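Build the 3D complex.
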Amino acid sequence: MAVTVKPKLDAVRIRADFPIFEQLIHGKPLAYLDSAVTSHKPRQVLAELQDFYETSYGNVHRGVYALSERATERFEGAREKVRAFVNAPSAREVIFTRNATEALNLVAYAWGFDNLGPGDLVVVTELEHHSNFVPWQYVAKRTGAGFRMIPLDERGELDLDGLDALEQEGNVKVVANNLVSNALGTINPVEKLAAWAHAQGAIMVVDAAQAAPHRPIDVEALDCDFLAFSSHKLCGPTSVGALWGRRELLEEMSPFNLGGHMIRKVTLEGTTWGELPHKFEAGTAPIAEAVGFGAAIDYLNEVGLDAIADHEHELLAYALERMQEVPGLTTYGPPVDRRAGIVSFNLDGVHPHDVAQVLDMDGVAIRAGHHCCQPLMAKLGVAATNRASFYLYTIPEEIDRMVTGLQRARKIFL
Amino acid sequence: MYREVILDHYKNPRGHGVIDGADAAAEGQNPLCGDEVSIFVSFEQGGDTIEDVKFSGRGCAISQAATSMLMEMVKGRSATEIATMPKDELLEEIGIPLTPVRLKCALLGLGVLKVALHRAKGTPLPDEWAGLDELELR
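Done.
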C-alpha cells in the first residue's frame, strides 16, 4: 500500500549549501533573520551562474553561432521553469523584468495609462509594499482616476466590509494586493479579491514577491490577471524578476520599455511591436541572472515548496512563543495559521534601529525600518518596527540567539 | 557602541524642548529609519550669537543622543561659526565608529541646525546639507 509521507525539511543540511554561513560576523556565526528583504544563494545557483558564463554565454535571440544558440536555449529554459513555478498556461506570458517592482510598474504604466480615466477607481490595500502602491497612486493621479485603499483590521488582516461602498464610488478598474505582506506576514485572500475584481470588470494585480519564495503559487487557482515576483528573494540572483500576465491583456497593451529586440518592423514613419514576450523585453536581458533564477527554482522544487512553508510555519510558532519571554515586546500581525514566516515587533522604549544594532553586535541580522510600508506604519501608529523573517535555511538556534539579544537590548536601554 | 555617554544623553537629553517665538527653526527626517528632529534657536539681541537652542523629536539612540550633545556644543557660539562647523567636531564628541547608515542618524541634528541658521541668517549651506532643506520644502 502506498503511503504518502510528507517530506520534512532538514534545515541544517540545507544550510550547508549556503557558503555565506561559513563566515563569522563580529566574531560570531551569522544568524540571518532577514530573508524577507533578500535571500542568500546556494552553491547550486552560484555554480550555474559560473558554468553559464564559462561555457554558454552570449547574447540571446541574435547570433547564428553556437554560443548564442546555447545561451538562448538556457535563457528560454529558465522562462519555462518560471512558467511551471507559477502554473502559467504559456511561457509566452512570462516576461523577465529587473525585479517585482519593475514588473508592477510595467502593468501600471502599460495597462494603466491606456485604460484608466476620470470616474475609474484603482483599489490597493493598506498592507501594500510601496512597489504595488506608489505606481498605482501615480498613474491614478496622472489619469484622473480615483485611488482607494482597503483598510486593515485590528489583527493586521484586510477588512473587506467596505467593498460594497467602493462599488458605489466609481468603476473599479484595478485591484492590487500582495499575496503575502512583507511587513506583517499576513496571507491575503487574493482569490476572494480576484473574484470581486472580476465582478466589477477590474483586473487583479498580485504582488507575489513575498509569497513566491515560501509557498506554492498557482495563477490559475488564484484567478488573477497579473502576478509579479523577484528572483533575489527566492535564492536566485539580483536584477531579475518575472511578470506573468494573461495573454489577451498583454497582447492589447502598449509596450513599456522601447528599443532593441522588442520590435517587428521599424521605419521612419513608425514601428510595430514584436510578439510576446519580446514586446516587453527591450534591450539585452539579464541573461545569466535569468539562468540563475531558473536554477534557484530548481533548487526550491527539489526541497519542496510545501516543505518550506511547513518549516517556516514551525519557526514562526516557535519564535512567537520564545518572544513572549521578553518583557515589553509587542508583536504585530495575524494569528499563526494565517501568517507566513515573518514577525514584526517593537521593544518598548527602544528604537528599532538600536535593537537591530545591538543584535548585529552578536552576529544576528534583523531588519529595522518601515519596510517600504509607510501607510501601514501610520496605521500601527509607529515610525518603524523590527522584523525577523525566516527561510528554508533558518534554524531554531538563530531565533534563540535573537531572543537573547533582545533581552540584552532591553538591559542596555532601560 | 552604546557607550555610557551616549546612553546618558539618550535617556536624559540636554536642551530638550521648544523655544516659543524662536528666531530660527527647522525640522528634518531620516527617511531610512524615521528619525525626526526639530531645532529651535534664539540669538542674542541684535547679533548672531546663539543664546539658546533646543530640540525635540523622536528616533534612535544615536540620533537623539547626538543632537543632545550638539545642543551643549553650540550654545554661545555664532551662527557663522556653526554654519562652517565640520561634522568631525560632532563625530569626535560622539566618539564611536559609525557605519554609513548610522552616520546619517548621528548627523541629522547638525544638518537641521545648519538649515535653521541658513534660513534665519543666510549662512552658507554646503551641498551635503542642502538635501535636508529641499526635503522639507517639497
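The mean pLDDT of chain B is 90.
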